[in-house]
Amino acid sequence: MTFLYQKGHTASLSAVAALLLFLAGCEPKEGAPPAVAVAPPPPTAAKSHPPAQQSAFYADSFSKRPTVPEMTRLGRSLFFDPLLSASGQLACATCHDPKFAYGPPPKGVTIHADRKSVPLVIARAIPSLKYLQTVPPFGEHHYDEAVDESVDQGPTGGHMWDGRADTLHDQARLPLFSASEMANTSAEQIVAVVRRGAHAQCVKSTFGDDVFDDNEKAFKAVLMALEVFQQSPREFYPYDSKYDSWLRGKAQLSEAETRGLKWFNDPHGGNCANCHPSQIRNGSFPQFTDFGLIALGVPRNPALAANKDSSYFDLGLCGPQRTELKSKGEYCGLFKAPSLRNVTLRHTFFHNGVYRDLREVVDFYVERDSHPEKFYPKSKDGQVNKFDDLPAQYHNNVNTESPFGEESAGRGPLPKKQLDDVMAFLATLTDGYQDPKNPQPPASDPTCSGGEAGAD
Ligand code: HEC
Ligand code: HEC
């Protein structure tokens, strides 16, 4: 098995490194090459847990050493199994649909809200689960040697829109227990279902026959299998978009795509690459995010149930979902910049899913400061209620660098042809571009025994 761990320059990854060490130990002995090549974490990387605590999760506690292909197969089966939810109706894949880069199906943020049996209020847009393998653990300070080592880039990293989960197994607990997602109340409940369910044998054959003797151990097996599945390169980070082929010198970008890329990178144009880097750095293919948490002041989404309460604000990094930084006013309104890979497969944009059309997102960047009336509602006195999803005392947190701010004064909409170019470029970031040698694995594989392992 050859899977090369492609890292972004900012990746620090003590947690991921712990997983990888664990995985490396799971390799079959017979002369196989090492599972993964991991560069040591950069020294400046902020860590929010001591490494010992993180690797404790991966300590070898099972009577059988699980292999990567076995865990991947089990993890995939669990990912598609609605029995993991309290209602028995929601699988991870219901929200993270492989057809849409493990992001939401077109019904978007309100999926299933209409089903009485699943009283579901999703307060945030469902992110894609692709290209998360280099997300560094959350840190309040970040120094990036590829940009300027002496400058603190501020809060960076972590999973979820507010960076509150450090690892994918940390993360998997959250939807499993969240009342608005899978709504389980205890690990025992999940273990009980798995023990009775179709995957029980598979869990045993992967982790040892005694795995169900101990609820904690069995739950850990479930989390670990889900995490390992989400690290399978072919499904989650294939780097097989047209843009990747172009970076490898194996494809040509069209004239329109090239013009779009130029605007995307231009500090006086879109300046998008400032936060969504597009270049190979230190030999790593670009993730199209620098993992930074930034306030863009995106408009309030009236469609979200939580927003019916006019005093409710989702302030991201400072709460209310995250609690430990709630006293830091300068963090209110900050959300993590997502990767733009596969962005044309999305139907909801920004943390609150306020936009349904990628063109609107680009318009927002171009004209937020020159024509705010296009994006924000008017109050009774006719004033534009700019940054209406953020209480006034936090408006200063909103980013005003290019393409926003002074630079955009007097700017009109991007001419249609130029907008088309940008769309053409963004479409080159979609995976699955002509690579017959790298066929996609089956989208769903409900049984443990069926399908290929996917991690070879
Ligand atoms: C009801 C829809 C729903 C279900 C079911 C669901 N998720 Fe999510 N998932 C979300 C939403 C919404 C977020 C973003 C939440 C936030 O940022 O606060 C999210 C975030 C994530 C993230 C973080 C991505 C990142 O790095 O920012 C991961 C990983 C993830 N989910 C995996 C899973 C797994 C594994 C399961 C099954 C155990 C699952 N999800 C089930 C809706 C769902
Ligand atoms: C100052 C940093 C910054 C710059 C510059 C920037 N972005 Fe972003 N981008 C972000 C952040 C942060 C978010 C998430 C904001 C939120 O949801 O509140 C985001 C979100 C997005 C999204 C939504 C993706 C999703 O999955 O919901 C798109 C699309 C996007 N940016 C495209 C662009 C384009 C195109 C440009 C250039 C015109 C650009 N960005 C410039 C930081 C930036």
What would you note in describing this structure?
The protein is mainly alpha-helical and 456 residues long. The chain has 2 domains: 14-236, Cytochrome Bc1 Complex, Chain D, domain 2, CATH 1.10.760; 242-427, Cytochrome Bc1 Complex, Chain D, domain 2, CATH 1.10.760. It is built from 13 helices and 4 strands. Strands 1-2 form a two-stranded antiparallel ribbon. It has a two-stranded antiparallel ribbon with strand order 3-4. A hairpin with a 3-residue loop joins β1 (143-144) and β2 (148-152). The radius of gyration is 22 Å and the shape is globular. It starts with 13 loop residues before the first helix and ends in a 29-residue tail after the last helix. The model is unreliable at 1-15, 26-54, 108-121 and 450-456 (pLDDT under 50). One heme C is lined by residues 84, 90, 92, 94-96, 120, 122, 124, 126-127, 129, 132, 135, 159-161, 168, 171-172, 175-176, 181-182, 226, 321.
